[in-house]
Amino acid sequence: MVFESINPTTGQSIKSYNVMNFEAVREIIEEIHQGFLLWRKESIEQRSEVLKAMSKTLRDRKNPYAELITEEMGKPIVQARAEIVKCASVCDFYAEHAHEYLAPRDIQTEATKSYVAFEPLGIVFAIMPWNFPFWQVFRFLAPALMAGNAGILKHSPNVTGCALAIEDVIKAAGYKRKIFQTLIIDNDAAASVIKHSLVRAVTLTGSTRAGKSVAATAGSVLKKVVLELGGSDPYIILKDANLADAVPMCVASRLTNAGQSCVSAKRFIVVEPLKKQFEEMFVAQMRLKKMGDPMSEDTDIGPMARFDLRDSLHRQVEQTLKDGAKLLLGGQISDDPGAFYPPTVLSDVKKGMLAYEEELFGPVAIIITVQDEEEAITVANDSPYGLGSAIFSMDEKRAEIIAREKIDAGCCFVNSIVRSDPRLPFGGVKESGYGRELSSFGIREFVNIKTVYVA
To answer: Are residues 256 and 144 in the same domain?
Structure first.
């Protein structure tokens, strides 16, 4: 069996990769486990030096790594460079803060000494998607390594080149034993990896369907799992929103990475008095965005990552229009080569329409009109997902109350674009998954939180 990486801009083959047999996979797991047994004994200072070296490699090789991202999955080159820099920043962050996050916590009891220690688990198996092919990996890998764990990766087949490049980042850090490797395997083999006795935990970023399957497999063998799954993020536009500020942020969020982000704005929930003005401003700014060659410095929107994803998105748009939605912009596939889909805006979307019920993973915005704040909150929560959300209002205190108390999501931003940040926990609720990545919460997901009691 062979995986083939296809350039979504040209439709041409980049490279083919032979899929590993499971005997080779077992050998890799055993080798990584031996590396882990030594890595866990390294001091936090030594691990920190390795992560700092990884950060330096990422920054030094920013341009070739970014070009690889753009070639394999079509991300505009400026955004791809930013992704590499963000990966370096998360390495630096944990190199600096892991000592604090992993320090034992003294607990006052009747004992002479009692405390909580944080010890590594072992090998963490990561199953990662194509949309942020470096960042998604480093988001788990930096904290996992700093906690003393080792890692193995099953990446999306269309970004196998990126997966192997990440191996090179670890090698360049200079640590002599192998503590991370990519497995070039299919989904069936992934289940066997989860069940391997030396694999202690699993992290997945992907679809809700994939998350349910992985959770069921991991649950059958009692393995710890963190799941970051789909999202249909609501952006609520209240009647006192400053549209001059809000609209550019809404457009930027919807079109970043050609709309292929779990936390990009998906549903724009607009209170009736602002409907017409919001739509006019939103469509006008969507028209200004340049779609084209992702290697060009001035391109805003590249192709979607694969042709099948582009075609599936178009079917969702067509069905939503049949359901009665109004097309304000886009909605047509051009005859140009590449998996391009134009910036598209659907208005008058209502409950029961396909775009209301499903996540649209691409540069398609849907506008839902509501009568008031109460209905906006109801619609925002009327989704199986609960990853990110945003509220735009001049009354920041009121918006904060809505964000804190009334929106069912893992994060809610006020007058800002939803985004991940190494300093803040990241993850969702409902069918957007469970567990957290990043910050102190993320590094403690894959540790043994051990009580030590000395009488």
So the answer is: no
Q: What is the DSSP string of 99-163?
A: HHHHS-EE--SSSSEEEEEEEE-SEEEEE--SSSTTHHHHHHHHHHHHTT-EEEEE--GGGHHHH
- Rounded CA-CA distance 132/72 in Å is 11
CA distance 305 to 225: 27
CATH number at residue 183: 3.40.605.10
Active site members: 228, 262
Strands 447-454 and 429-430: unpaired
> Do residues 50 and 169 make contact, with C-beta atoms less than 8 angstroms apart?
no
The CA distance from 25 to 215, in Å, is 21
In a domain, 427, yes or no: no
- pTM (predicted TM-score): 0.97
pLDDT of residue 89: 98
Both 64 and 49 in a single domain? Answer: yes
pLDDT digits (tens, 9 = 90+) for 397-429: 999 999 999 999 999 999 999 999 999 999 999
Supply the pLDDT for residue 67: 98
Residues 295 and 410 in one domain: yes
Determine, yes or no, domain membership for 387. yes
Does the pLDDT value for residue 17 go beyond 90? yes
Query: Within 10 Å of residue 338's Cβ, how many Cβ atoms?
Result: 21
424 is written with which tokens? Answer: 């803040």
For residues 235 and 389, the answer to whether their CB atoms sit within 8 Å is: yes
Judge if 107 and 219 occupy the same domain.
yes
Report yes or no on 330 lying in a domain.
yes
- Are 373 and 285 in a shared domain? yes
Please count the structural domains in the chain: 2
277, 279, 282, 288 alpha-carbon torsion, rounded to 10°: -110
Edge-to-edge strands of the sheet including 447-454?
A: 105-106, 113-120, 447-454
pLDDT in tens, 345-398: 999 999 999 999 999 999 999 999 999 999 999 999 999 999 999 999 999 999
Is residue 334's pLDDT more than 90? no
Give yes or no: residues 264 and 396 share one domain. Answer: yes
Confidence of residue 161 (pLDDT cuts 50, 70, 90): very high
- What residue numbers bound the domain in which 35 lies? 2-229+432-454
Share of the chain above pLDDT 90, in %: 99
386 beta partners: 429
Q: Measuring CA to CA, which residue among 384, 352, 390 is closest to residue 267?
A: 390
Residues 27 and 174 in one domain: yes
Residue with tokens 């691990």: 47
Within this chain, do residues 245 and 127 fall inside the same structural domain, yes or no? no
Token readout for 395 is 């009354």
- The CA R_g of the chain, rounded to the nearest whole Å, is 23
